[in-house]
Amino acid sequence: MNGTRQALLGATGLFVLSFWTTGAHASPWTREPGRPLSISKLTASEAEEDGRQFGQTSLETYFEWGVGGGAMIGGKLGQAWQSIEQDAFSDRLSGISEAEIFVQKGFARSERGVASGAVALAAPTSTTSQLIADRAFERDAAAEISALAGYDFSAAFVTAKLGPRLSFGDDADLLKGEVTLGHARDSGTLVLVDLYATQSLGGAAPGGVDYSLYQIAPSVVLPLFGRVALQLGARADLAGENVDLGRGAFVALWVGR
User: Fold this and answer.
1) Parallel, antiparallel, or unpaired for β 156-167 and 228-241?
2) Number of Cα atoms under 13 Å in the Cβ half of residue 127
């Protein structure tokens, strides 16, 4: 059993990207007081490399609420269900993929541009294996400090986010960046291209998570009725280190857009 457990841990570690798929993220424009936004996102992803096959379905809920004074609070909670096929064994895993709260404050705003800062706290998360009846993979609690900026060109807009994710345990510290390119159509439809970058800053202890990953996620947000919209998109891993690169598709329901 020890040999099986070590093989499973190694396989799961290489597929860390699937456990923390990119999800909804805060806009640099903070929300008006008392105005909420929730995004519930279902993602299916897969990867195959060196005889390893992985699949994952994840469900994530993101929430933000304007509290006044140019500030907002929010958080996200995700659950993941994974499958692993390698050589003579297979396994199913499940667990909390992300649990995070944040506070964001706007610092500068013009007619078209905005700048803000955010601090997020992430709880430790892990998957549980059906094969070995134990936690197969874990991620430590962490804090993330980010600077955000955005500019509205009327028909199009661009936003950016950059900051370190500092681990409270054995995981490596990470530098995380996000860029969103968007186009708003007269019909209310949004066309989005999200670019995500995660770069390891090193410093992981033995057994800690240490990876780099670069992704692209195009999508379209379709208005349904009132302040409700449906998002359809895809995600591809472009490059990375200590991960198996994968691809996936997602659907999300926006309420309070």
Assistant:
1) unpaired
2) 28
Residue pair 104/30 in contact (Cβ under 8 Å)? The answer is yes
Q: What gap in Å lies between CA 213 and CA 238, rounded to an integer?
A: 8
pLDDT single digits (tens) 127-175: 887 776 555 567 899 999 999 999 999 889 999 999 999 999 999 999 9
Q: 3-state class of 169 per DSSP?
A: coil
Q: b or e along 48-87 (b: 16 or more beta carbons within 10 Å of the residue's beta carbon)?
A: eeeebbbbbbbebbbbbbbbeebbbebbbbbbbebebebe
Between CA 170 and CA 35, with CA 144 as vertex, the angle to 5 degrees is 140
Q: How far is residue 130's CA from residue 139's CA, in Å, rounded to a whole number?
A: 19
Residue pair 231/221 in contact (Cβ under 8 Å)? The answer is yes
Q: Residue 218 is encoded by which pair of tokens?
A: 């195009």
The whole-model pTM stands at: 0.88
The backbone torsions φ and ψ at residue 9, rounded to the nearest 5 degrees and listed phi first, read -60, -40
Q: Where are the alpha helices (DSSP H) in the chain?
A: 2-14, 16-19
Strands (E), 153-207: 156-167, 174-184, 190-200
37 CB-side CA count, 13 A: 21
Domain with 45 in it: 2-255
Residues shown for the chain: 257
State how far the Cα of 229 lies from the Cα of 145, in Å rounded to an integer: 30
| CATH code (residue 67) | 2.40.128.130
Total number of domains in the chain:
1
Please state the φ and ψ torsions of residue 108, each to the nearest 5 degrees: -150, 140
